[in-house]
Amino acid sequence: MPESTEVKRPVITPLRVVIALCLIAPFVAMLWVSSYAKTDPALGGIPFFYWYQMLWVLISTALTMIAYKLWQHDQRSRTTAPSSSDSSKGGASK
After folding, report:
1. Which pick of 16, 23, 44, 47 has the fewest CB atoms within 10 Å?
2. How far is CA 67 from the centre of its chain?
3. What is the DSSP letter of 43?
4. Is the bond preceding residue 82 a cis peptide, omega within 30 degrees?
């Protein structure tokens, strides 16, 4: 007899899509080198090529923090799903 091993597939929700976009955006921005491989506009004498990458360090930090907070929210909402059957069981406490 074959064993029934049920594999749960991950649930894709809009919140998880936003989390994925927050984590993927920095990679796309940094791997698309032709979009920032130039010297103008300079910012305080620093060529665009350099300050653009430094700006993405800050943006990546913010997006990773947002993704982490959204993930925590998603996990909390999954573990504390309201159950109406718990409150309707009755039973008196002594």
Report:
1. 44
2. 3
3. B
4. no
Q: How far is CA 39 from the centre of its chain?
A: 32
Q: Per this entry, what is the length of the chain? A: 94
What distance in Å separates the CA atoms of residue 2 and residue 39, rounded to the nearest whole number?
A: 64
Q: Where are the beta strands (DSSP E) in the chain?
A: none
Whole-angstrom Cα distance, residue 14 to residue 19? Answer: 9
Tokens of 36: 């920032």
- Name beta bridge partners: 43: 46
Q: Average pLDDT per run of 10 along the chain, which is 94 residues long?
A: 73 91 95 90 92 95 97 88 55 52
